[in-house]
């Protein structure tokens, strides 16, 4: 485990955030509500390519899901990644996630459930502090 902690800068109005679907497919109605909620906070929003993809119980193939997340991690305009929902799937792609990008350009990473595996790996491998919290396409998150 690394002793150095990396704490990403807080999000500010006008920042661009992305939503990653590392696990299960997204309910379009809940996604739309979640995006509206994020935009009311003054943030700009970008969806990953596989946000509406479904492969069995996942939001696309392992390759699609890890590529989409890695694309956000290396995109200098993205300042935060809000995971769309939980479920199972991130654990399957952990070895292919670009943890080096988390060190060179730390971003807010927000979510829970299956994201716990990614959060623990990010903290242990590169010291990145992530946030356990509401996910984008979970209705209760934007009814608070």
Structure description:
It is built from 5 helices and 5 strands; from the N terminus they run E-H-E-H-E-H-H-E-H-E. The protein has helices at 28-40, 62-74, 90-93, 99-104, 115-126, and strands at residues 16-20, 44-47, 78-83, 108-111, 131-132. With 144 residues, it is an alpha/beta fold. It has a 5-stranded parallel β-sheet, sandwiched between helices. The radius of gyration is 14 Å and the shape is globular.
Short note summarizing the structure:
The chain contains five helices and five strands.
Task: Name some characteristics of this structure.
33% helix; alpha/beta; 144 residues; 5 strands; 5-stranded parallel beta sheet
Class from secondary-structure proportions: alpha/beta
For the CA atoms, what is the radius of gyration? 14 Å
Cα distance spanning the termini: 35 Å
Q: What percentage of the residues does DSSP assign to strands (E)?
A: 5-15%
Taking strands numbered 1, 2, ... along the chain, how are they ordered across the largest sheet?
2-1-3-4-5
> Helix segment count?
5
The total beta strand count reads 5
Q: Please mark out the parts with pLDDT under 50 across 5 or more consecutive residues, or reply none.
A: none
Q: What string gives the helices and strands in order?
A: EHEHEHHEHE
User: What is the chains' assembly state?
Assistant: single chain
Residue share in helix: 25-40%
How many strands, which pairing sense, and closed or not: the largest β-sheet? 5 strands, parallel
Mean pLDDT: 86
Shape: globular
């Amino acid at each position: 485990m690394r002793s150095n902690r990396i704490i990403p800068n807080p999000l500010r109005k006008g920042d661009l955030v992305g939503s990653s679907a590392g696990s299960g497919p997204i309910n379009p109605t809940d996604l739309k509500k979640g995006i509206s909620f994020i935009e009311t906070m003054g943030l700009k929003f970008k969806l990953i390519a596989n946000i509406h993809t479904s492969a069995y119980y996942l939001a696309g193939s392992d390759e699609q899901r890890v590529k989409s997340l890695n694309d956000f991690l290396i995109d200098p305009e993205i300042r935060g990644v809000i995971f769309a929902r939980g479920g199972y799937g991130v654990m399957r792609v952990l070895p292919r996630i670009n943890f080096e990008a988390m060190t060179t350009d730390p971003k807010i990473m927000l979510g829970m459930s299956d994201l716990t595996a990614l959060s623990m790996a990010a903290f242990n491998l590169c010291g990145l502090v992530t946030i356990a919290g509401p996910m984008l396409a979970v209705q209760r998150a934007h009814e608070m």
